[in-house]
Design goal:
heterotrimer, A alpha/beta (397), B mainly alpha (326), C mainly alpha (319), A: 397 residues, alpha/beta, Rossmann fold, 7-stranded mixed β-sheet, 6-stranded parallel β-sheet, B: 326 residues, mainly alpha, ABC transporter involved in vitamin B12 uptake, BtuC, globular
């Protein structure tokens, strides 16, 4: 009994301690915003998180409540319930297992909802564009994802590379974003592979996308005068999978490996010193910078961390009672692309702007100027469309 | 009683790995693929042997004593994270980084064991709590970023066949020495076969358990470092994302148990790991889809267990048939 | 056998007390953090009911001293096939029956393999978990609609309410309680878990009981799969994947010994599942960040289990 009492007192002390810990945290922000994340560990996800929690939260007196790393639609729903319990005024979502369900849940609860780094499909947008609490979406559409893959492959084909390896990431799990990037790569190879070039008989973007969805993977082989000599997909992280990656790098005559994401994390160790060029979609972190300096990484397309600034501003405006809607009163649906670095100098230039916690690409001053309550839809759309590095530097000036 | 000959024992010990090799070679031949095509294939094979052998030791040391451990993957991840970060900050070389990883992992094992012996919570439950705790520590320590050492050619350069062989041989030798030729090992075996009697005869169970957790942790430190040196990065896992590594150790553990009848059990585990490494190599060479790999590995595990648990019945039926024929 | 002493009753009392402490902490922190605690209670029920259902059934397996890690994958496969059946027929009853039927088939395969071939149940379920997880990916591929299998949300929305879920949980708990407490099956299961050799010598058929336990557990899995679809009708390869671990934690959180035996209780699962629900709400309110938050969660988990197992410490180390 004595022991029990002691341990129970310990438990109560712990809870009291936690309670005290949370009090200052509560004072930190007057407006709470929930953030849904399906990826809590990639460098891109961490860069986004740092921008919100280390810059925006301080600049706007906002508290961000992050979900756990979500793996399914049930997790999304539970997290939104938790945000409602926490009296969050809005939800910004980086998770896309079931966006319609997220929109409907937030609308029913009377809290604003916005999509960051993604967009709704045309059908979904038509259905939800009039919802009062749906703020909108800003991010790369599937067309932009496709174009990102296309540009990556085209960059090497134009340099005379003919033998490619490809890392398909989430393709075997039917991750749309990765399938579209991979389809873009294959389409570039088909279009630039000479007469009669095709991928398993498919010779246009639509057919290639359909083929990948049908197969749940990508087959190697000749595409006109180009060749996909090796392909690895998935994130198994077991010996066989690492073996496949090493094999891909060691494939005879392979010149470049184009990846739909996480290229440096999964292939960096194998590519180092091999002479094979590595291209990926990731973020402008110091680790990627080092990889580019040392020649491991050759081409990088990345979302800059502050690219999620405008969607925050639009959400914040809505919370303040001034939602930004288009001329027909519909929610936002704006595209935003990637920054592409092909050399170390360019990368460092981007990284310097992107990784700053005090002077990021989109500061409060810029957001207040172009995305403050009362700004017109046209001005806001024009602001979002100027996402290239040079345009942002000009804006900052 | 007639003593079984050394040659017979050796042949029986090699039966499973050799059979696996022959079957895979035949499949490879039919597919027109070479199992060991180049240096990368050998590297994959020896890396898998090292990883699986050490993980299986780490699992079986405690599991044989009825202590289930879900935290092996988390220990491996956290030790590699700490060692990798220090390697980055202090610019230390691969061998020193390996030693740091081993030391950190042994300490984590000791902490795990300490919580177990202090609280007397069932080991499986402690291991769940510790897995969550270590995953959280690794995430908090790096701010979720993990470790990236892709530019550290010296550390990535550790991934050589010679180093894998060296690490495996040292680990197997030390484990054989510790568990078969020391007082600690004798106590361990006594506790394993009769916990109550062993404790009543004065064997210090707590010390032995703590030692087992520390050794198990140290082994996972090596596994963590091998993984870090292989890819040059250590990524983070949360919410039990790290426990998968444990499941790879079951089949070699059971194979090791069977081979252990004919040769030292630890060497048996290594031969079991060789069999698994051959299968991993085949998955990579045949470009087997992940879902198919899962199903094949699970079926192999079940089939082997069916044989193992019904060996007597199967063999006596087989002998009966032979007798009838004769 | 004499009456239980106070000290022997501590574990039962401690797990419930643990739940009450968590509820108290939830209200205190909720008040400080200006949280919507009333809505939070609804969230706790929504988020705990599936784990409670699966864990309640799993009590039968755990009572035998067995262990099943494939419960999450079994729930996932049942839900995926249930959703596919609904999309093919448009009938919620068919969906319900398929969820239960698939879970029963999986449970039967699991227990038969273990019983007929004398396999260690834990390792069998490890293998089963791999097979089922791979099968989920194959099913999604077969379905041919991207990375998910969807049921129209509006079709299941009428069932997505607390009274329906709670009544399903209560009915299943009542059924399990009846079997566990009033029928010989429960007593025999406790006997096997407590002393398998004695039980065998007393003529109890361990294999038959293992199959019965798996089938009862499978009904819980099927119900859990059905409610998973009702709660979030878009399913993917990771649907219900965390349930396997959640069930183990819930059962232990509820004060049941993992070794099974006579101290097993049906209500442990419910107490544990709801304790986890409240702990999750508290962690969300504290907003501690992923790493630090998980460390605190692990510490609280171990602390609660430590309290719940208060009187079970012996001279020998627990195995």
């Amino acid at each position: 009994m004595k022991n029990l009492k002691r341990t129970l007192s310990m438990a109560l002390c712990l809870i009291l301690m936690l309670t005290l810990t949370c009090v200052p945290a509560m004072a930190a922000g007057s407006v709470k915003i929930g953030v849904l994340v399906s990826d809590a560990t990639s460098s891109e996800a961490l860069a986004f998180r740092a921008y919100y929690t280390e810059y925006i939260a301080k600049a706007y007196d906002v508290e961000f409540i992050y979900s756990d790393e979500l793996t399914d639609a049930a997790g999304e729903k539970s997290s939104i319930e938790n945000f409602i319990v926490n009296n969050c005024k809005a939800v910004i979502s980086f998770s896309s297992f079931d966006r319609p369900a997220q929109i409907e849940q937030c609308d029913a609860a009377g809290i604003y909802y916005a999509v960051a780094t993604g967009t709704l499909t045309d059908e979904q947008y038509e259905e939800y564009k009039d919802y009062e609490y749906y703020v909108g979406a800003i991010g790369p559409s599937m067309d932009i994802e496709f174009q990102t893959g296309y540009d990556m492959a085209a960059y090497y084909i134009d340099q005379g590379v003919t033998r490619f390896g490809m890392f398909g990431g989430g393709v075997p799990y039917y991750v749309d974003m990765h399938i579209y990037r991979a389809a873009g790569m294959l389409t570039a190879m088909v279009e630039k592979g000479g007469e009669g070039a095709n991928y398993k008989g498919a010779d246009n973007a639509g057919a290639i996308i359909g083929q990948i969805y049908a197969d749940g993977g990508i087959d190697t082989g000749k595409i006109g005068n180009l060749e996909l000599v090796a392909y690895v997909g998935g994130y198994d992280f077991n010996d066989a999978w690492f073996g496949k990656l090493a094999q891909m790098v060691g494939t005879e005559g392979i010149e470049a490996i184009i990846t739909v994401g996480s290229g440096v994390d999964v292939l960096g160790g194998f590519v180092a010193g091999s002479g094979v060029k590595l291209a990926t979609v990731d973020s402008f972190t110091p680790a990627m910078g080092e990889a580019m300096d040392s020649g491991i990484l050759d081409y990088m397309a990345g979302k800059f961390a502050a690219s999620i600034g405008p969607i925050f501003a639009a959400t914040y405006d809505a919370i303040q009672g001034s939602p930004i809607r288009d001329s027909e009163g519909c929610a936002l649906a704006l595209g935003q692309g990637f920054w592409v670095a092909t050399d170390s100098e360019q990368f460092q230039q981007y990284s310097a702007v992107d990784s700053s916690n005090t002077d990021p690409a989109y500061t409060r001053e810029i957001l207040d100027q172009y995305a403050a309550p009362g700004v017109s839809f046209e001005d806001f759309a024009a602001f979002v469309s100027q996402y290239s590095f040079d345009e942002i530097v000009t804006l900052k000036k | 009683m007639k003593k079984p000959s050394l040659i017979r024992n050796l042949l029986l010990s090699l039966l499973i790995p050799c059979t696996v090799f022959l079957v895979l070679e035949m499949i490879a031949f039919a597919k027109g693929v070479r199992l060991f095509a180049n240096a990368d294939s050998w590297k994959l094979f020896f890396r898998a042997v090292a990883n699986v052998t050490l993980t299986t030791f780490a699992l079986s040391i405690n599991l044989d004593s009825g202590r289930f451990d879900f935290s092996l993957g988390a220990v491996s991840m956290l030790s590699a994270t700490v060692a990798g970060t220090l390697a980055q900050q202090w610019s230390i070389g691969p061998w020193l980084t390996l030693i740091v990883a081993i030391a950190v992992a042994a300490l984590l094992g000791l902490v795990h064991g300490g919580v177990y012996v202090l609280t007397r919570i069932p080991p499986i439950i402690v291991s769940l709590g510790m897995a969550l705790f270590f995953e959280g520590c690794a995430f908090a320590y790096t701010g979720g970023k993990g470790v990236s050492l892709v530019t550290r050619t010296d550390i990535i350069g550790f991934s050589r066949i010679g180093n894998y062989i060296l690490v495996t041989v040292i680990a197997v030798s030390l484990i054989v020495l510790l568990f078969d030729y020391t007082r600690f090992g004798a106590d361990y075996r006594a506790l394993l076969s009769g916990q109550k009697i062993a404790v009543e005869t004065g064997i210090r169970e707590v010390g032995n358990a703590l030692g087992c957790y520390a050794v198990s942790g140290a082994l996972m430190g090596v596994v963590g470092f091998i993984s870090l040196a292989n890819t040059g990065s250590q990524q983070m896992s949360l919410n039990f994302g790290s426990i998968g590594i444990m499941f790879t150790a079951f089949l070699p553990m059971f194979i090791g148990g069977w081979i252990g009848r004919y040769i030292n059990k630890r060497v048996g585990i290594m031969l079991g790991a060789v069999s698994m490494a051959l299968i991993s190599l085949a998955y990579a060479r045949f470009d087997t889809a992940s879902s198919v790999q899962s199903i094949i590995s699970a079926l192999l595990l079940v089939l082997f267990l069916i044989y193992l648990n019904n060996e007597y019945a199967i063999l006596s039926r087989f002998r009966k048939k032979q007798e009838i024929k004769e | 056998m004499g009456k239980q002493t106070w000290k022997e009753r501590i574990p039962t009392f401690a797990s419930t007390l643990g739940l009450l402490v968590l509820i108290a902490a939830y209200y205190i922190i909720g008040a400080i953090r200006d949280a919507n605690v009333a809505y939070g209670l609804k969230a706790v029920v929504n988020q705990s009911v599936v784990v409670a259902l699966v864990a309640t059934g799993a009590v039968f397996i755990y009572t035998l001293g067995s262990f099943d890690i494939s419960l999450g994958a079994a729930t996932g496969v049942s839900a995926l096939l249930g959703a596919m059946a609904y999309n093919a027929t448009g009938s919620l009853i068919v969906m319900f029956l398929v969820c239960i039927g698939v879970a029963v088939v999986i449970g039967f395969i699991n227990s038969s393999l273990a019983s007929v071939f004398n396999l260690p149940i834990f390792v069998t379920t490890v293998a089963m978990m791999s097979v089922l997880s791979a099968f989920m990916l194959i099913l999604i591929g077969w379905n041919g609609a991207g990375d998910t299998i969807k049921v129209k949300a509006r079709d299941v929305r009428p069932l997505d309410n607390i009274p329906f879920k709670v009544s399903m949980l209560v009915a299943y708990i009542a059924l399990c309680w009846f079997i566990f407490t009033l029928l010989p099956t429960g007593r025999e299961a406790k006997f096997i878990g407590g002393n398998p050799i004695c039980a065998k010598l007393s003529g109890i058929d361990e294999k038959k009981l293992a199959i019965i336990a798996s089938l009862i557990s499978a009904v819980g899995i099927g119900l859990g799969a059905f409610l998973t679809i009702v709660y979030a009708p878009t399913l993917n390869k990771d649907t219900a994947s965390s349930i396997g671990m959640d069930v183990i934690i819930a059962i232990v959180f509820g004060g049941m010994p993992v070794s099974g035996g006579p101290r097993s209780r049906i209500l442990s699962a419910v107490v544990g599942a709801f304790s986890m629900g409240f702990l999750s709400q508290i962690m969300s309110m504290l907003n501690l960040g992923s790493g630090f938050g998980q460390m605190i969660k692990a510490a609280i988990f171990l602390l609660v289990v430590f309290i719940a197992l208060g009187s079970q410490r012996s001279k020998l180390l627990t195995r």
